[in-house]
Amino acid sequence: MKKSKFLWGSLLALTLVLTACGSKNDATEASQEDTTAVESAVESADVVESTEAAGAATGEQIQWDDNSLYLVTDLGTIDDKSFNQGAFQGLEQFANEIGVKANYIRPQGQGDQVYLQAIEQAIQQGAKVVVTPGYLFEVAVGTAQKDHPDVKFIAVDFTPQRIVEGQTNEDGSPVKEEYFEANTTSILFKEEQSGYLAGYAAVKDGYTKLGFAGGVAVPAVVRYGFGFLAGADAAAKEMNVNPVELTYNYTGSFEPTPEIQTMAATWYTNGTQVIFSCGGGIGSSVLKAAMSNDGKMIGVDVDQKDMGEAVITSAMKNLQSAVYQSLVQLNKGEFVGGKSEVFGAAEDGVQISEDFSRFQKFTQEDYTKIFEALKANTDGIADKIPAFDPSGDPTTIAGEFSNIKLNYVK
After folding, report:
1. What secondary structure letter does DSSP report for 62?
2. Is the distance from CB of 350 to CB of 317 less than 8 angstroms?
C-alpha cells in the first residue's frame, strides 16, 4: 500500500501517535512517528479509478481520490468495538464503494487545539471530507468549518460550537454556543431509546439487579443511562416486579482502568447480575470483571457480543449507516449542511443486538413488539422517556420510576 506523507510547517513540533488495526476488508496497517514529520495511518481497500460525483448543494464536482476521506478519532481507538469503530466502518463502506482509501488519524492528547491540529493535518493531506466522532470535537469543528469552507465536516454525536468572547460560566469555563456553517452536518441519536430497549430487555429476561457504568457524563451517555432506567422500570411494571435494583455511576473516563474493573467486580460480588457498560473502552474493564464473577454485561454503540460470551446484548445506534448515508447524500449533491439530523427508532437509527441467543426468556417477538411501539410512539412511550438533564444526576428523574430502587454512586 502506498503511504501518504507530509510536512506540517509550523506544527512540526507536535507529534501525533497514529494507530490502525485490520478491518473486515483485510486493510493494511500503517503507523509511524517522527520528530520532523508525521505519517498518517490509513485503512485501504482495493483502489480503482475514482469517479466524479456531485458535491454539496453548491453544485461543485468532487474528484474522489485516496486522500479525500478522513476520520479523526476521539479518546478511543479505531478498533474500540464502539464509537470510533462504528463511525469508521461507515466511512470505509463508502470508500470501498467508490474505490478509494478510508483514512484515519488518532491524536495523542486532548484539547481543542490538539483536535484542531489533527483536522488540519487531514486537510493538509487532501481531505475533502472529515468525519469527527464525539463531543470533544465541538470547538475544533466549529473553528475548522469556517476556516475551510470547501471541506465537508460530518460531526457525529455533537453540534459544532464556538466560544463566546468575554463570557464565562460559573466554574470559569468559556461559554459556548451552537454554530453551524453550510459545510457541516451533525448526526445525532436518540440514545435514550436505545437504552430503554436494553433496560426493558434485561428485566424481561429476568434480571432484577442491574448496574449502569457510564463513562463521562456527556449528553449521549446521560441519555443512554436515563433510557436504561426508564426501560427497566417499564418492564418491571409489566411483570409486577418491585423493586428492580439499579446501581448507577459515571466512571469519568472512556478508557479501561484497573479501578473501573475493581468497581465492577465489587458490584458483581454484591449481587449485581448485569452491568450496562456505557463508555467506549471501559467495556473491556467491565467485561473482565463480569467474566471473573459470573456476571453479564450489556455493550454500547455497536454490537459488542464478540467481546465475550458474557455480553448478552448491546444498546446500539446505527453509526455505520448514518455516516455512510451522509456520504452518499454528499455524493448525490444532497449534503445536509448547516443543521443536525436526529436518528431514533422511527428512523431505524437505534436498536439492540439482532442476536437473541444469549437471552433466556426475552425473544425476537418480544423485541419486535416493544420496538414497534417505540417507533410508532404508541401511547406516547417515546415521549415519556426522560432524555437529558445537564447534571446527569439520575436522582432528578428517579421519582418517575416507582419500580426501581436506585443507588447512585458518585
Report:
1. E
2. yes
